[in-house]
Design goal:
Blueprint lengths: L1 H27 L6 H18 L4 H26 L3 H28 L11 H23 L2 H11 L1 H6 L4 H27 L10 H16 L4 H25 L10 H15 L10
Amino acid sequence: MFDNALNLISLSLAFSLIGLNVFLTKRILNITDLTCDASFALGGCAYGMALMCEMNPLLAFLFAMSLGTLAGLVTSSFVNHVGMTPIIASIVSLVAVQSVVLKFTSIGRIMMRNDIHSSLGSLSALDNFVITVFLVSTLCLIFYRLITSEYGLAMRVCGSGQIIAESLGIQSSSMLFVGLAIGNLLSAIGGMLVTQISGTFSATMGIGTLIFGLSAIIIGERIVCPKSIKESFLACFIGAFIYKAILGIFTGCCGNLIFGYEYNQLIIAVVFVCLMVISKEHKFGRHV
């Protein structure tokens, strides 16, 4: 029971990074980035596959981080250099990354059939909790300092409109480049933490990530009622944590396992629709 509670808290903290990603792309840059679904699965599957290949855990972590960042850079390159809209660019990246994710999962299945020793899932619930708290708190601190800095202000101006940003001497293309890279980096680390905590990974683990992030923001803003960018950041983090904790408790009470339960995405979709119906007067805009 104690281990399950620790794992639930750890998972909630890991999924809070998804809320930060959606907060950055939707609230700050004012775009919809579907790449987070792919980068979440990419980070988790890359990390799990690397551990099954007996790679050093730290190198596996860096490997997953770099792939998640690369996914964001590819999407921003499609927007800046090819001229795609952000939603189309993210869909193209999502489809492309999914092939890589499927390859990683197939390698993982081969390793399992060959009974290859792996450190995946070898840590205790307490160890996973300590690692997750350290990583998430460090990333949140860095992210908070970023969005409250002058560079973060420039990002918010860029989200207000490209013409306004360029009139102030801000390069909107570079802001998009950095913003999507950071956002997908957070998603990849979230996926990696979920893989580490649950001891498993799959090609479908990223489905519903964007919906989760949007729901978390709505919940957080209803609880905190933010009036500044700092409060919006806090609302995003709290909303993601509470939302994941509620989902974990709900599925656990229904008799399913907290990890890998089959109706997870359906529950996320239903809860999101209910939130939109209850909060239909809530306009999903931005806070500057």
